[in-house]
Amino acid sequence: MKNKKELIESLNLENQLSLEDIPNLDLYMDQVIQLFENKFAASKRNDDEKVLTKTMINNYAKGKLFFPIKNKKYSKEHLILISMIYQMKSALSIKDVKMALDQLNSKITDEDFNLQRLYRSYLDLMDKNSAMFKNDVEEHWKDINNEVKELENDHADDEAYLEQVLLVATFSSMSNYYRRAAEKIVDNMKKEGNKDEA
């Protein structure tokens, strides 16, 4: 990676499934897969990676990560939930994703709940997260450059490599902090859910 701008551009951070991307008619599974493939193809790590497969969707359905479909078709609400699952599953276990979305699924089926309004808020937050991430990358890159300069006398030939190692270690640790925070919230949701059942 030559520079931070190239890194950030390669991540396609603005790539989200918007409400406007989701048709107002129910879709069959193949159409759902095609929609997600078209939308998130640029976000894949390599060409062999699949964004969404029949097996994944079937596993989400069996695991009750979203409410049951009707007539083998997926509604706009299903696609919203699948989009949220797609984003969460890269950081959380499927069990944790299910726990996080469990009450939401109940609200959709039991009440007159406006999932689209919640999803719009979610997308707004994703835009803000993207902007914050870009700023954080700038700050981390500056800090790492300063650290590498301190090491230059001993390791002048390795400067580019050492910078990359420190970037990988820093981004990994930040990712772990956020994942652990999300897991703690899921654990708390589980405790609160158990209290309600008692």
Description of the structure:
With 198 residues, the protein is mostly helical. It has seven helices and two strands; from the N terminus they run αβααβαααα. It has a two-stranded antiparallel ribbon. Helix 4 runs antiparallel to helix 5 and helix 5 packs across helix 7. The protein starts with a helix and ends with a helix. 13% of the residues are buried. The model has no long low-confidence stretch (mean pLDDT 92).
The main pleated sheet reads as: 2 strands, antiparallel
Helix content: over 70%
- Identify the overall geometry: elongated
Relative strand content: under 5%
Low-confidence stretches: none
Structural key phrases:
single chain; 198 residues; mainly alpha; two-stranded antiparallel sheet; 7 helices; 70% helix
Quick overview of this protein structure:
This protein has helices at residues 4-11, 29-40, 54-62, 76-88, 94-110, 115-155, 159-197, and strands spanning 27-28, 73-74. It is mainly α and 198 residues long. It has a two-stranded antiparallel ribbon with strand order 1-2.
Q: What's the helix and strand layout?
A:
Layout: H1 4-11, E1 27-28, H2 29-40, H3 54-62, E2 73-74, H4 76-88, H5 94-110, H6 115-155, H7 159-197
Antiparallel strand pairs: 1-2
